[in-house]
Amino acid sequence: MLSLPLRIVMAHLASPPLTYMRCPKCGSSQDKVIDSREAREGQAIRRRRECMRCNFRFTTYEIVEREELRVVKRSGARQNFDREKLLYGLRKACEKRPVNMEQIDQMVDDIANELEEEGYREIPSTVIGAKVMRCLEKTDHVAYVRYASVYRKFEDVGEFIDEIKSLDSRRVRDTSQEELFT
Length: 182
Prior knowledge:
44% of the residues lie in helices and 18% in strands. With 182 residues, the protein is an alpha+beta fold. The chain folds into 2 domains: 9-63; 70-170. Strands 1-2-3 form a 3-stranded antiparallel sheet, with no helix packed on it. A 3-stranded mixed sheet has the order 5-4-6.
């Protein structure tokens, strides 16, 4: 079931579009939509498009615009919440790990939705960082430690070891599996 705001967006988009997307290959603004479907659990519309000039196919996503959220940095500076910056940080943490882009996109969506539901207009960056670490801890422990090392500004190997021990102590153990390292 789609949420009400998305239905409104979709109803509005059912009318002929006034503008087109530019082709990433040739730059033409003439394209046609080949396929449209719901994405990200109803939070977006995924469209497959084909350029009318060069026949290149590409994908676009339409999402509902949210009210601007301001992030309060550690320095006290304020800036707009940047979903792409969050996505970049998660991609770097998950680089060369068995975490696919759909999982990363889902984490970003979950965090952004949580922030929206909590009703913040301004939020400390530390709260966002804690939410990212919670998601990564559930997804991939190596990615979690990578992110934690930057987020918590680790300065030596001892801090890595302490974080890994802390993570290991929080992990639920399978009692049927033999302990390899003690």
